[in-house]
Amino acid sequence: MLTDAHCRNAKPREKLYRLKDFNGLYLEVKPSGTKAWRYRYKLNNKESMFALGNYPDMGLAEAREQCDGVRKQVKQGIHPVVHRQQEKARLIKEAACTFEVVAKEWLALKSWEAVTKARRLNMLERVVFPTIGSLPVRQISSPTILSLLLNSSKENGVTVAAEAKRTMFGIFELACETFRADANPVHQWREALPKNKTQHKRALNTEEIGKLLTDFAGHGGNFQTIYAFRLMWLTLTRPNEAVCAEWSELDLESGVWKIQACRMKNRREHTVPLPRQAIDLLKALHPITSHTKHVFPSRDDRSKPMADATIRQALKKLGWATKYSPHGTRTTGSTRLNELGYRGDVIEAQLAHTEPNSVRRSYNHATYFDERREMMQRWADLLDMLVEKTLKQRA
Known about the structure:
This protein is an alpha+beta fold.
């Protein structure tokens, strides 16, 4: 049985020799002077030697401890050499599986529009990747995530930090489901993180609707921007659904607009009844932009649609940005149509909202198209009346 003195005083010889400790542990002394710990074992009736480490980097006590661990593997029928090779390969693979790699894989799986993916990737590159992008996803801890989110709240604002948290949660869920992480380190943190104080803008009252539509129609901007804004109000579609409208989706004779599933938030085709005012608007545009794919082509690249940011810029110029956002059109429309006594199911169908009840969603495929056509015509007539009232007041 060896002592520290034996190990320290062992001198090299012309030939390699070994000093025996116990339970198969040896100190191997090479002619070069290198002293290495070796464990001799037998597995499947075959003797093998396993390298534990060099002396004095690994002392006697540590060598015995390491030897005990390897001996347990042998008793379980595990070949320590093979196990070490597999563990090394696993660590190399794990190190290559960084957060950034999984994040980009997660983004690729999303059925979002390209512009949406680009915005989310931009956020990750600015806010998340500099801190954890190069780290193996399995090694990222909750304290690291919390620190990242706290710093982001200070530097980028609470809203951006909240988006980063939601995004990271989804990415780690993918890592867990594909066995590349043991647990999701993103928690709710109801108290540790600053609260998002962003409030959704309220619905506009009828007087405000009239003033907004009148202001926008007369703001002197590009006529396409004015028409896109008007179409959004006449149909209560989402801003991006309106500005990205394609001529192939429209049947002006029947007064029907079928928005492709790939452009809808819920990825289901949405049929929109067009009131008379919307049909007149589109017919007026037809001679001007019908040679392009999009009803409202981009000014800089006619093969692409107008950006919905164009509407927001116009609202900012008019001083409406603090009181109203384009998406608030739907909130306003829903509120006012409910006041007019229309059924909630009909309004929700017009807004293309997904039924929250999964059972009801499976069996209720009604689109209430005839009711929606009547409702949207009344809505369009109301908008005309409100604009006319505003113009009279200003005269």
